[in-house]
Write a structure and sequence with these properties.
59% of the residues lie in helices and 21% in strands. The chain has 8 helices and 5 strands.
């Protein structure tokens, strides 16, 4: 706080106690001291009386220690009394901002972590099914393509048919935005149950991209948290 300035909460108390006279009296206080503690002491001694404020200013010019003693701000409990009389400082606001940043980090990390926890096993299971021959592929044709919205955003669904061992099957699965009616698509099906199928590539690509994005998001947030922790550690050591 520079010279000829009042702290925000001293200014609020001054306006509350003196109304339209606050600006003029504030200049007088700021000319005598730029310490919030001493400014508050002047206000507390004045107790809304202009003559009392003038007397408090005279005392401040003569002996700052006597001013603080008279206002009850001389011992180690003075910060709490200042908070009680003037309202808390901006530290709670900083704490709220810190909590908001923490909440935003959680909002970023939690979905990413959940996606990783679900997506990685899905990829492993998918690879296992391919490796054990429980999934085979054939060609199919898109019969219908439609879009809609889900919790994860816009989603496209295709109805398609495919032939396995001379039998034609029709199914519906998620597909890409560019798939069109009549397009040829790769159908993955269970050879033990040919009616169970999906469209190869679309879900897997989306899953891999999602996993990569989740990993990057978590890495960025973790790096920011680490940097913040290191800055706090340095401040404590200095």
């Amino acid at each position: 706080m520079g010279r000829d300035e009042l702290s925000d909460r001293v200014g609020r108390r001054l306006r509350r106690d003196f109304g339209s006279r606050a600006e003029r009296l504030g200049r007088q206080i700021a000319e005598v001291t730029d310490s919030e503690r001493e400014q508050a002491a002047v206000l507390l001694l004045a107790d809304g009386d202009e003559d009392g404020l003038a007397a408090a200013l005279r005392l401040a010019r003569q002996d700052r220690r006597d001013l603080l003693v008279a206002a009850g701000l001389a011992d180690e409990r003075w910060p709490r009394r200042l908070d009680h009389e003037l309202g808390r400082t901006s530290r709670p606001l900083r704490r709220r901002r810190s909590r908001l940043r923490t909440a935003l980090r959680v909002l970023l990390i939690a979905p990413g972590a959940l996606f990783l926890l679900i997506g990685v096993p899905l990829l492993i299971v998918d690879d296992y099914r391919d490796a054990t021959g429980r999934v085979e592929e054939t060609s199919g044709e898109v019969l219908e393509h439609r879009g809609g919205w889900s919790k994860g955003g816009q989603r496209y669904v295709c109805t398609y048919d495919y032939v396995v061992d001379g039998a034609t099957h029709t199914s519906t699965a998620g597909c890409g935005e560019d798939d069109r009616v009549g397009d040829e698509v790769t159908v993955r099906y269970d050879p033990t149950d040919p009616t169970s199928s999906d469209l190869g590539g679309n879900d897997r690509v989306a899953l891999v991209v999602g996993l990569g994005a989740a990993a990057i998001c978590i890495a960025v947030v973790a790096d920011q948290a680490f940097r913040a922790h290191r800055r706090r550690t340095r401040r404590l050591r200095s």
